[in-house]
Write a structure and sequence with these properties.
This protein is mainly alpha-helical and 94 residues long. The protein has 2 domains: 1-38, no CATH class; 43-94. The protein has helices spanning 6-15, 20-37, 44-92. Helix 1 (6-15) crosses helix 2. The radius of gyration is 33 Å and the shape is rod-shaped.
Amino acid sequence: MPITNALENARRLESLGFTHEQAQGLSEIVEQAALASQPDFSKPQVQLDMQTLRSEMRAMGDRLVWEIRTQTLSVFTMLVGLLGLTIAILKFLP
């Protein structure tokens, strides 16, 4: 699949003074360079990087769930302690 419009590029180069062969050759070089710079997601390294990213995201999610549970338990424990303290204070009041 072409990335650049090689025919249009060749016409523009010809209008700038390049010969037809020069314009066509330069347009092909630009197209090849553009294709070479495109990432290939089918390469094993990219797939490995994506798998690593997925596993890191899962681990982050697991840590986040653990942290939320820990914080929830801490808040609940503080509320129970505060309720106990309130009841104790109310018992000692006349």
